[in-house]
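ok new one. same drill as before - structure tokens go in, u give me an amino acid for every spot. 111 of them this time. try not to just spam alanines like last time pls lmao
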């Protein structure tokens, strides 16, 4: 899950919904903070201390590699070896969650 400051609430809805899914999934939240000056990175890191697990993406290299940047939040579902299964840009909705859960279920059925 990639999200910038403006997409925090959207990302949190996705995270909450995905954590309620009974299928085993590993969720990694990526905070896209490339705009933070180096001198303030310690302050930002402490602000995220409670939000584990989270990857702080200072230079947006990881986010850019998954095409994040044009939306407020981007959900990317990957296989265990890193193949992209589904990408969803946009606010959480039950319909979108159903599509993501279906993709995860299909992935698990094929493995």
């Amino acid at each position: 899950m990639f999200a910038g400051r403006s997409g925090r609430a959207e990302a949190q809805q996705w995270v909450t919904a995905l954590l309620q899914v009974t299928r085993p999934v590993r969720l990694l939240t990526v905070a896209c903070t490339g705009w933070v000056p180096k001198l303030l990175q310690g302050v930002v890191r402490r602000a995220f201390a409670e939000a584990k697990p989270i990857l702080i993406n200072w230079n947006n290299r990881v986010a850019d590699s998954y095409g994040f940047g044009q939306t407020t939040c981007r959900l990317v579902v990957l296989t265990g070896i890193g193949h992209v299964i589904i990408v969803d840009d946009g606010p959480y909705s039950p319909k979108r969650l159903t599509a993501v859960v279906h993709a995860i279920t299909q992935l698990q059925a094929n493995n």
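The two ends are 23 Å apart (CA to CA). and btw The longest helix spans residues 94-110.
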